[in-house]
Structure formats: C-alpha cells, structure tokens
C-alpha cells in the first residue's frame, strides 16, 4: 500500500510541475507574440525545434534500428497526422488565441481536453464514465464559464 501512495505523490508532483511549466510557456509565448508578430513563422520554428529535441531524445532512448523503420500503414498515418494536423494546427490556434486574448484565456481551455478525451473514450472504446467523472466535468465547465464571464465583465467595465 505504501508503494501506491508513493506513486500518487509522484504523479501529483509531476502534474503540478507540468502545469507550472505549461503556464510559464504560455506567458512566454504571449511576450514573444508581442515582439514577433508573424504567428505562422513562429509556429514553424516551434515545431522545428520541438522535432529536433524529440529526435535527439528518440536517438537516445530508441537505439534499436528496427524501431525506426516506417511502413505504409496506420503507424505512418498517425505520425504524419499528429505532426501536421495536431501539432502545427494546435500551436497556430494557440498563438492566435494568445495574441488576441492573452495567456489566461488560452490556459483556461486546457481542462476541456480532459473532458473531450473522456467523452471520446466512452464513445470510441466503450469505457464507463463514473458519476464522479461527470461531476468533475461539470465543475470544469462551470469554472471555465466563470472565468470567461469574469473576463467579459472586466473588459466591459474598463
């Protein structure tokens, strides 16, 4: 039982570290977007340097040449789809949101990813949604609505 508790603590610390790093990344992007206004070029540079970092890490961790072989199958489609559609489009839309609304609004939509993944897994993989998960999803949506309402009130009064 102590091992499980230790994993929960490690997991919570990793999630906290991830959110702090992501918040810092969004703030940094907002500052850079004001100086460098070419969103598409900036997105291209971000994706290029991310692919360089990922390549170095992959070379370090996947040393077996067989794991680098690509075939014309679902694996190649998944790699191209994630690289082109998910990464590039997501970064571009994120930069657009950061330049118009700021890092707070961009960060507020991240919890919606959890809800979308839960709904997709329930539909596509027939996973069960528990009552606590539905309450959590409802609270996330209420929190998002409260932040959006607060930002709207703040903009209208000033």
Automatic annotation (TrEMBL):
<dbReference type="InterPro" id="IPR030184">
    <property type="entry name" value="WAT1-related"/>
</dbReference>
<feature type="transmembrane region" description="Helical">
    <location>
        <begin position="74"/>
        <end position="93"/>
    </location>
</feature>
<feature type="transmembrane region" description="Helical">
    <location>
        <begin position="12"/>
        <end position="28"/>
    </location>
</feature>
<dbReference type="GO" id="GO:0016020">
    <property type="term" value="C:membrane"/>
</dbReference>
<comment type="similarity">
    <text>Belongs to the drug/metabolite transporter (DMT) superfamily. Plant drug/metabolite exporter (P-DME) (TC 2.A.7.4) family.</text>
</comment>
<dbReference type="Pfam" id="PF00892">
    <property type="entry name" value="EamA"/>
</dbReference>
<dbReference type="InterPro" id="IPR000620">
    <property type="entry name" value="EamA_dom"/>
</dbReference>
<keyword id="KW-0812">Transmembrane</keyword>
<keyword id="KW-0472">Membrane</keyword>
<dbReference type="GO" id="GO:0022857">
    <property type="term" value="F:transmembrane transporter activity"/>
</dbReference>
<protein>
    <recommendedName>
        <fullName>WAT1-related protein</fullName>
    </recommendedName>
</protein>
<feature type="domain" description="EamA">
    <location>
        <begin position="10"/>
        <end position="148"/>
    </location>
</feature>
<feature type="transmembrane region" description="Helical">
    <location>
        <begin position="40"/>
        <end position="62"/>
    </location>
</feature>
<dbReference type="InterPro" id="IPR037185">
    <property type="entry name" value="EmrE-like"/>
</dbReference>
<feature type="transmembrane region" description="Helical">
    <location>
        <begin position="105"/>
        <end position="125"/>
    </location>
</feature>
<keyword id="KW-1133">Transmembrane helix</keyword>
<feature type="transmembrane region" description="Helical">
    <location>
        <begin position="131"/>
        <end position="150"/>
    </location>
</feature>
